[in-house]
Amino acid sequence: MRLIMILGHAHSSSTLTGILLGSSPDVTFTGEEYDFFRENALEDYCTCGKKVSDCPFWAEVNDLLAKQVGADFRSRMQDLHKGLNRDTIYFLNKKFPCDEDCMKILEAYYKILYQVSGTKYILSGTKKIYYSRKVLENIFGSHALKYIITVRNPFGAMASYLRRGVSFLQSLRIIGTFYVMAKLAVPKNVRYIVKYENWINNPVEFFSNLSKELNIQQPQWKIEYENNTIAIQPVKQIHIFAGNKIRKKDKHVIQEDTRWKTELSSLQKLIISTTLLPVYKILY
Length: 284
Ligand SMILES: [Zn+2]
Known about the structure:
Layout: E1 3-8, H1 14-21, E2 27-32, H2 33-37, H3 56-69, H4 73-76, H5 78-83, H6 87-91, H7 100-117, E3 121-126, H8 129-140, E4 145-151, H9 154-163, H10 168-185, E5 191-195, H11 196-199, H12 203-214, E6 221-226, E7 229-234, E8 252-254, H13 260-263, H14 266-274, H15 276-283
Parallel strand pairs: 1-3, 1-4, 2-3, 4-5
Antiparallel strand pairs: 6-7, 7-8
Helix pairs in contact: 3-7, 7-8, 9-10, 10-15
Bound molecules: zinc ion.
């Protein structure tokens, strides 16, 4: 059983990274772990166009898991998800929210994913760095576990959060915490940094190199180059679900995002360049 976990702050293109890498024949991208355990997950729509409860991949995973750990597993996981909003605090040694039952459910979940997928790697995602390390290393053993950390320059990341209506100070705190946590909590020998600015202009070259480093076959895409944009369509059917717009597209148009240059005020840029930017430069 082998896992690659994508750790990314929101708006760092973690989902797109998952979709692009998930079109490798060696990899099955399963989206964010959290989404499967939401109470209403079965009501959602999968990228294959079917309801999650009717999707051939997720219906099988759901049935096998219900048989193995009991059909009420979603309600038993709710405490974990409430607790995980405080990931940083657990890193600082507060009681960890995943008990034995939770660990048992997650272990069964990943084993079933691996079995149903039939590929060399499962590629999953989470924003909870410390939780991920503690739980997943317990399940997989560190030898079978690799981490991709997706980061984006602080100006672009901040503008993207503000566009979503998150307050300036909260965005600053979330992104700053992520930059530091990702470096502190993830062991260096299994850590692959995917910087948005490094791949956005040449995804083909970047993901080919990354595939070699990860020791997986190259992803297979149909690619069209237009003025300043690259449109990529994964050749493989990918089964992921939950709200994000990007998950509903079968073709992904990639373009450098420079909107932040006009969207952020001078004061906001000044605050970002004196707080987040130095941290980002040192760490990444
Ligand atoms: Zn599906």
